[in-house]
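Weekly structure sync, notes
Attendees: PL (lead), two postdocs, one rotation student
Agenda item 3: pending single-chain targets
PL asked that the sequence for the first pending target be pasted directly into the notes so everyone works from the same version. It is reproduced below exactly as submitted, 139 residues in total.
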Amino acid sequence: MIDFPLTLRRGKQLSFLSTALIWTLTGPPLRAEQMPPLQYFVGEYSMIGRVAGNLIAGTVVATENNERLELHTELFGNGWLVLNDNQSELAAPLAGEIGDRELFCLFKNDNDNYPILNCRLQVSGEQASDGYLTLWPNG
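Predicted structure, written out during the meeting:
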């Protein structure tokens, strides 16, 4: 089997097959003009995930403020997301911070056209992922 590595920012590599699998599961990345407005993501979310090896659960409240999505959670404190300026085909469409971690999120729509976010956490300045979160709307 041929597996071609693709180099990501900060020297990370992602294999061609891994990229194909991501695109199969999530579809190709959206261009800026295809992104919904931030208002689409406003609301209260249930959250589960694994951070630093520990399972977590909680809620996140997302509000729009000055062209960014403000995130409020008891587990991490406050954070934010914006439309990612990096329009690379491998970049997450939403990027920001929560607590002391960088946050990169993909999203999908559920059957009722509500967003479900799948996010990767990374300690600022580190290359390795620190955890993953999934957020879905309450109610």
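Discussion points:
- The chain is about 10% helix and 50% strand.
- The domain at 33-137 is CATH 2.40.128.120 (Lipocalin).
Action: rotation student to compare against the earlier draft before next sync.
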